[in-house]
Amino acid sequence: MKKLYKHTTRDIFAFVLEDQRVLKIENIFGEPIEIPLYSVFFKYFPAEQGLKIIAVDEAPADVMDLFFQVLRDVTGQDYQYSLGQVLTVELSGQNLHSETVSLKSKAQKTLLIATRNEGKTREFKAMFSQLGYAIKNLNDFPELPDVAETGMTFEENARLKAETISELTGEMVLADDSGLMVDVLGGLPGVWSARFAGDHATDAANNAKLLHELASTAISPEKRKAKFHTTLVVAAPEKDSLVVEGEWPGEIATIPKGDDGFGYDPLFVDEETGRTAAQMTLEQKNQVSHRARALKNLLKKWPEWLRQ
Ligand SMILES: O=P(O)(O)OP(=O)(O)OP(=O)(O)OC[C@H]1O[C@@H](n2cnc3c(O)ncnc32)[C@H](O)[C@@H]1O
Ligand SMILES: [Mg+2]
């Protein structure tokens, strides 16, 4: 028999999941509840075990309370917490953990993007803020693992990132796998864009390698045709993932230009305007980029997919 925990006054229940390292928080009747407990869960909850919390009404502070009650019970440690702008966890009067949090207001939804790339995240933040979503990425959850991109296609890698993190958190998760595809290089660097000049290569090293590869073979502009590609995957528990793509045609400049953006932006010349992506403001890039086009395709399918 699973041990069932219940909040002292509210109809909020919890039980421990054996052999499943997830934290699932469900709200039966209302909106999904956003509660900043993942870091604490992955840090302190016994390894190999998960927790499912079911709330009958939306009461984030009481869900917190029940979570810490269970944590104390399963660890035998007297963890205490306080919650304001910052969530702190204490043991025997000693501060163990501090994290800036905002308990979700009903109007604002949060979407987790399975990326550690702050350049991508900035672009998504701007695009999603117009849709009423706040964005978090994996840098907000240091306890979540890095997902190895072992796939040979953008879709395989985007699925790996979205589905792994969704399984671990029990939340809906978006992932982006993207890259630059240069015609004369047969589509390279493609899925290897982040690692073109070697594992953990800097953007500058990747750009230098690209210029080097094109120096002898591709002198004329028509030989320097390229496109940016994005595949987006949204994964959620008990659902088949949603997959969409977007592409942005252009060519590779002979010298880097512009200071904005990230990655290959200083070398990627937009076909329409002749400017590099790094010469555009974030807003301008978000009108035309591969990521923006993929998001547009996502928004066409997302509402129907959410209803399924
Ligand atoms: O996997 P995550 O954590 O999302 O971050 P990443 O940087 O490894 O991202 P990818 O695996 O999708 O690799 C894509 C690489 O392609 C490049 N890239 C993707 N989109 C870009 C853009 O909009 N502008 C410039 N370069 C981009 C950039 O070098 C990225 O590191
Ligand atoms: Mg990556």
UniProtKB/TrEMBL annotation:
Mg(2+) binds at D177. GO terms for cellular component: cytosol. Binds 1 Mg(2+) ion per subunit. Keywords: Hydrolase, Magnesium, Metal-binding, Nucleotide metabolism, Nucleotide-binding. GO terms for molecular function: dITP diphosphatase activity; ITP diphosphatase activity; metal ion binding; nucleotide binding; ribonucleoside triphosphate phosphatase activity; XTP diphosphatase activity. Its EC number is 3.6.1.66. The active site is at D177. Substrate binds at T115, R116, N117, E118, G119, K120, S178, F262, G263, Y264, D265, K285, H290, R291. It is an enzyme of class 3 (hydrolase). It holds the Pfam family Ham1p_like. The keyword Magnesium applies. It catalyses: dITP + H2O = dIMP + diphosphate + H(+); ITP + H2O = IMP + diphosphate + H(+); XTP + H2O = XMP + diphosphate + H(+). CDD domains: HAM1 (cd00515). Transmembrane segments: none annotated. One of its GO terms (biological process) is nucleotide metabolic process. Its cofactor is Mg(2+). Homodimer. NCBIfam families: PRK02491.1, PRK14822.1, RdgB/HAM1 family non-canonical purine NTP pyrophosphatase. Pyrophosphatase that catalyzes the hydrolysis of nucleoside triphosphates to their monophosphate derivatives, with a high preference for the non-canonical purine nucleotides XTP (xanthosine triphosphate), dITP (deoxyinosine triphosphate) and ITP. Seems to function as a house-cleaning enzyme that removes non-canonical purine nucleotides from the nucleotide pool, thus preventing their incorporation into DNA/RNA and avoiding chromosomal lesions. Belongs to the HAM1 NTPase family. This is dITP/XTP pyrophosphatase. It comes from Pseudolactococcus raffinolactis. The lineage of its organism: Bacteria, Bacillati, Bacillota, Bacilli, Lactobacillales.
